[in-house]
Specification:
The chain is an alpha+beta fold and 128 residues long. Strands 2-1-4-5-6-7-3 form a seven-stranded antiparallel sheet. It starts with 6 loop residues before the first strand and ends with a helix.
Length: 128
């Protein structure tokens, strides 16, 4: 049985597309993406100003015959945009997640209000 896949998050400034931080501590990654209490929204307000873009990567699935002790490549599974002075986010699931099927981006885009605790954790990570 395969162990849980490792994930990492790269956080970029939307303003200048600069990589601000890479998070690969699985406890922090899990804390940031504990989605059970995210409130889904049907759309976002047009006046929100994008602040950060989080690229969420996960290890590729181990295939038969691969050495489980060797490092595996990561694949982009989602892009999340946060907004200045807001708990709203936009999540776009990567089309690579759905194999053998082409799904338009609008069908893979979701909007949420993040709990305050998760937003605090994100900002704490950026201040370190």
């Amino acid at each position: 049985m395969e162990s849980k896949k490792q994930s990492r998050i790269e956080i970029y400034s939307v303003e200048n597309d600069k990589l601000l931080k890479t998070i690969d501590d699985q406890i922090v990654v899990n804390e940031l993406f504990s989605t059970y209490n995210w409130e889904e929204k049907s759309e976002l307000s047009d006046d929100l100003i994008p602040e950060y873009q989080l690229l969420v990567y996960q290890e590729k699935t181990m295939l038969w015959g691969q050495d489980p002790d060797k490092d595996r490549e990561y694949e982009l599974i989602a892009t999340i945009t946060t907004f200045l002075d807001s708990s709203y986010i936009e999540e776009v699931i990567s089309s690579d997640v759905v194999k053998n099927m082409k799904i338009p981006e609008y069908a893979m885009t979701f909007y949420y209000i993040m709990p305050d605790k998760i937003m605090e954790t994100l900002h704490e990570q950026l201040e370190e």
